[in-house]
């Protein structure tokens, strides 16, 4: 009897197929992973230039400045990276899009 069931492809589950939950249709309302991690540009040219200038000034202060607080200038890496990517997390949270062509 067991051999007949194994040949039929049913195994010992008595005809019921157990699902691991990986295959099959997606549940409704579950976003695709590509939609979750996509960072669309939300910064216009003017905002990117301003962020780049502020970042350059802060990093220059960190490198060339003297005193006890010049390490704060390394925060300028954040606006530099933001300007380079064209995506600002604060804009995304507030729902602001200054990019006209995006």
Which structural class fits the helix and strand makeup? mainly alpha
The overall strand count is 0
Q: What oligomeric assembly is this protein in?
A: single chain
Radius of gyration based on Cα positions: 27 Å
Q: What fraction of residues sit in β-strands?
A: under 5%
Task: Quote the distance from N terminus to C terminus.
Answer: 64 Å
Helix content: 40-55%
What does this molecule look like?
With 102 residues, the protein is mainly α. It has a domain at 31-94. It contains five helices and no strands. It is elongated, with a radius of gyration of 27 Å. The N and C termini lie far apart (64 Å).
Kindly list the characteristics that best describe this protein:
102 residues, mainly alpha, 5 helices
Summarize this structure briefly.
With 102 residues, the protein is an all-alpha fold. It contains five helices and no strands. The protein has a domain of 64 residues.
Furnish the topology, listing elements before pairings.
Layout: H1 2-7, H2 33-37, H3 45-64, H4 77-85, H5 89-94
Helix pairs in contact: 3-4
């Amino acid at each position: 009897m067991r051999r007949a069931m194994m040949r039929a492809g049913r195994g010992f589950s008595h005809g019921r197929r157990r699902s691991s939950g990986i295959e099959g249709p997606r549940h409704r309302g579950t976003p695709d992973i590509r939609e979750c991690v996509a960072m669309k540009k939300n910064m216009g040219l003017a905002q990117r230039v301003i962020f780049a200038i502020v970042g350059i000034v802060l990093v220059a202060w960190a490198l060339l400045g003297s005193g006890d607080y010049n390490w704060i200038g390394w925060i300028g890496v954040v606006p530099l990276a933001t300007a380079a990517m064209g995506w600002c997390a604060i804009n995304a949270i507030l729902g602001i899009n200054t990019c006209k062509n995006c």
